[in-house]
Amino acid sequence: MNRREAVGRAAFLLGGAITFNSLGAFAEGVMPANNLPFDAKLLNAEEDLVAEIADTFIPDRKDIPGAKAAGLGPFIVMMIQDCYTSDIQMQFAKGLKTIEEVSQTQFQRSFKVLTLPERENIFKLFKAEAIAQKKNRSTSNGAVAPPHFFQLVSELTYLGYYTSEIGATKALRYVHIPGKYQSCVPLQAGQKAWAT
Predict the structure, then answer these.
(1) Residue 194 domain flag
(2) Which of 73, 104, 143, 193 has the most Cβ atoms closer than 10 angstroms to its Cβ?
């Protein structure tokens, strides 16, 4: 099984956390449309920005590395390039451009150099937009609107992080060879959720 198949299967296993609407390319055979004009290879130049966006969702904590340490910049770009349709790829690229524009307008600096509270201020705007779009899911012709950039990048961040080695072994509680199956295990206050 290659990485694409593994990620595809993980996405379906995590179906409760990830909306099928945002994984629209899976419904079309896990292959992006090649007949549309957007060149997804252009996103390779944006890996640093994507890593900083992901690191805003899951920053480093005391003894737990964040999203950037887990290699989420390249992961998210790979997912967008390999698993999403060209229109969603284009929407993702526009979202990256908009984040930079808002950052320059509000703080006169690139998103990459903003402090965490400044980044979170920008995220509040995008989250409000995503919630408003989710309430009105249909477009003017009655088709379902594609997911908002903020929803897409947050879902890919959490998928990538909690399926990465760092996320599964540092952020979650992990036992390499678990014992007997227990369907319900009570958690103590402050205990990490299980990865296995």
Answers:
(1) no
(2) 73
Residue-wise pLDDT tens for the chain (196 aa)?
565 565 555 555 555 455 544 444 444 444 444 454 567 778 888 899 999 999 999 999 888 999 999 999 999 999 998 888 888 888 899 999 999 999 999 999 999 999 999 999 999 999 998 888 887 765 555 666 778 899 999 999 999 999 999 988 888 887 777 677 777 878 888 888 777 6
pTM attached to this predicted model: 0.71
Cβ partners under 8 Å of residue 122, min gap 6:
99, 102, 103, 106, 111, 114
Could you tell me the two tokens for 24?
């629209």
Among 38, 3, 41, 8, residue whose Cα is nearest residue 23: 8
The residue segments making up the domain with residue 86 are 3-171
Element (H or E) spanning 159, and its range? helix 149-162
